[in-house]
Every structure is written in C-alpha cells, then in structure tokens.
Amino acid sequence: MDAVKGLLEYIGFIVAAVVGFLLNTLVSFYKAQRVKADTDGVIKSAKRDDFRTILEAYGEILTRLEKNIDSLQAELEECQKSNSEMTIQLRQVRIEEIRRKHNGNGGGNGE
Fold this sequence. Notes:
This protein has one helix at 2-104. It is mainly α. The chain is rod-shaped.
C-alpha cells in the first residue's frame, strides 16, 4: 500500500510538474504575444512618425523651393525690366548716332 501511495505521489508530482511547465509555457507564450503586439504597435507608431517626419521634411523643402522660385521670379522680372530699359537706352543711343550721322553728313548720303 505504501508503494502504491508513493507511486501515486510520484505520478502526482510528475503531473503537477507537467501542468506547471505547460502553464508556465502558456503564460510565457501569452506574454511574448503581448510584447510582440506592443512591439508591433511601437513599430507601426514609429513608422507613422517616420512618415510624418518625412512629410514634414518634404513640406519644408517645398516651402523653400517656393520661396526660391518667388525670388527667382522677382529677379527675372527685374532683369526683364532692366533689359527693357537697356534696350530702350540702346535704341535711343542708336537713334542719336543715326541723327548725328545724318546731321553731320549734311542730310546724309550727300543730300
């Protein structure tokens, strides 16, 4: 009887150890799944933040480009205005040269 009782205690100990091991494994698996889910959430959040950061950087770049374009447009308009003024001045100089030649030539071409 003592042998049967000892055997039952030994089997009970083994069953308890196996059940404990299985419960421990199940809890570890559950914790690992929660950590994985949390990690995935953090990674997704980081990816969203990275995407947001990238979008903000592109926004800044576009803003700078717009400012540069506006600046270049203003410079172009100034150059065009200056070019027009120079063209007008050049034409006036040419007209003056033609008048001088015409007046100095006695009416031009011997007239």
